[in-house]
Amino acid sequence: MNVQNVVVSKNIKRMYGLLSDGQRQTASGYSTDKGIGQSDDTAAELYISDRMMHQRNAAAQISAEAQDEISILQIAEKRLVEETDALQKMEELARKAAFDNLTDVERSEIADKALRLIKEIDNISESTRFNELSPLNAGESDGDNASGKTGVGSDKRLGPDARQTIDEMRKLFSGAFCDASSGNLGIGEIDLSTKKSSGRAVDLVRDAKQQIDAFQDSFAKEHERLEKVLRSLHGVEIEGADSNNIDDPESASEMLNNSKGAIIKHADKSMVAQANSAASGMMKLLQ
After folding, report:
1. Do 197 and 94 share a structural domain?
2. Is the separation of the CB atoms in 84 and 209 below 8 Å?
3. Does residue 79 form part of some domain?
4. Cβ-contact 122, 240 below 8 angstroms
5. Quick one: three-class SS letters along the chain?
6. Does one domain contain both 140 and 10?
7. How far is CA 45 from the centre of its chain?
8. Are 269 and 30 within 8 A, CB to CB?
9. What is the pLDDT of residues 211-266, one digit of tens each?
10. Which of 219, 239, 224 is nearest to 59 (CA)?
11. pLDDT over 90 percentage in the chain
């Protein structure tokens, strides 16, 4: 028995010396016979550590997706303001053509200005892009495109729940896209050639402005939904630990150290088991 105890003691002392001070404290129980028998506790610690890291990675992935989609909304909202400005100018031209006595030359000049504004609106709708997405030209942004182009992409290392959350978020987000082209707004072919047609053009431009307002309201609601996603991620409770901010580097370091400590404890147990086996064989020879 003395031979066996010496071999075990030397192996434990060698493995114990590999640990840092923090890890040595958590692994100290394994230097005793009682610690060697606590394999269930060690497995639970490893599971909790892996679970914490998995949840952290999933939260970071979803956060990145939400941040990208918020960026798209911010760009789209800014460009819608530019379209509203163009519509305001167009309404002023239509009113001038409807109520002022103009010569044919003046009316032609107003019509040319209105045509340039229409082209400007179409250019805004077509050129507003983010990662191949066109939030103001819904015809070019179908669900498949949205699910493949937003954010940092699918990560196979994430669990099915995280991927499902991202897919659902993308599907909802793609539904917020709109068609802000002149044709969809109903002003693609307004006629300012006469007072009567110019009066109808005033109503069309006013309706287009209301439609832009509705798009902006839709984007604002989607923006708020994504902000709620981010707030919920920052307040999520990770299993087996207190609430952790997903951007807290100290939490990541602590989880990493716990994982390393658990791995070393497994190695310690393995070496002790091998030492006991070798010592047992030696004792049989001595007998």
Report:
1. yes
2. yes
3. yes
4. no
5. CHHHHHHHHHHHHHHHCCCCHHHHHHHHHHHCHHHHCCHHHHHHHHHHHHHHHHHHHHHHHHHHHHHHHHHHHHHHHHHHHHHHHHHHHHHHHHHHHHHCCCCHHHHHHHHHHHHHHHHHHHHHHHHCCECCECCCEHHHCCHHHHHHHCCCCCCCCCCHHHHHHHHHHHHHHHCCCCECCHHHHCCCCCCCCCHHHHHHHHHHHHHHHHHHHHHHHHHHHHHHHHHHHHHHHHCCECCCCCECCCCCHHHHHHHHHHHHHHHHHHHHHHHHHHHHHHHHHHHHHHC
6. no
7. 29
8. yes
9. 999 999 999 999 999 998 888 877 653 333 444 444 444 554 555 555 555 555 55
10. 239
11. 37
Indicate if 230 and 262 belong to the same structural domain: no
In angstroms, the CA 221 to CA 217 distance is 6
Note if the pTM is more than 0.70.
Answer: no
Produce one character per residue of 61-70: b if its CB has 16 or more CB atoms within 10 Å, e if not.
Answer: bbbbbbebbb
Neighbours of 140 (CB within 10 A): 16
Q: Token pair 């954010």 is at which residue?
A: 151
Q: Are 211 and 136 part of one and the same domain?
A: yes
Q: Whole domain around residue 29: which residue ranges? A: 2-37+250-286
